[in-house]
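ok so I'm stuck.
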Amino acid sequence: MTGRALARADTPAAADALCARGRPLAGATDLLVHGLDGVRGELVDLTAIHDPRPPVERLADGRVRVSATAPISAIARSPEPVPVALTDAIAQFASPQIRNRATLGGNIANGSPAADLVPPLVVTDAVLGVRGADGRRSVPVGEMLAGPGRTTLRPGEWIEYADLAPVPHSGFRKLGYRRALAVAVVSLAWSWSPGSPRSGTEPGGAVALHDVRLAAGAVAPTVVRCPRAEAALNTLDATCVDTAATAVHDDIAPIDDLRASAWYRADALAGLVRELAPAATRQLREGDTAQP
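replied:
not stuck anymore, here's the structure
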């Protein structure tokens, strides 16, 4: 790795100007992993930006704005709650030391299909605030993902924040080869809204699910929604959950690599879908106190 100059941006406007000729950098937790070969210009440190706003704030329309440049540990500690799927993903992200440096924007911009923080953004319909010397634009998170290691960020752009839609219930599960500092073999985020108990079932009825969203990581070139499994998940009863777990095989396109085979990833994701039921039932019983 060759040496590079480091410029520190103290305002968003300064970051816009500097990123026009350099590479934006926030937590830098993957800097040594990816190296600097082929990087043009200087590195632009976004962590020095003075922002009086908190890392999480509630907008007037009910959405939650989450900083893309604050350490994710600050997001987890925020008094303003974020969807449980995101707090669950942060809790399973790397290690405490890395969480004190890593950022939401960096996790998105890396373009990894196994990114821990992206599935929760997908199931909360996150819209990214992107900016640069040429102006600002809003990009749905699904349109930001272009393939392994690729995004639709234009040269000189950086991610300032993500706006997340409020969801009544959500969660995140990750399968790795150890409890910490592990890249996901597969991951699954979900969100849903409860309906009325159905009649003609056991006492209390089976709760109907509405607006079910499932997003899977490490099973396709990008994090993907699972529409067939979503359509099958009408309730949390065993039959619907088993049907959804079977249907999810048709929603994904896993590959063989050094961490797992394609068939293992497909079966493991089906297992996570099945494990969703007890977690979601527990949310119904105890309430999602961390949800907006």
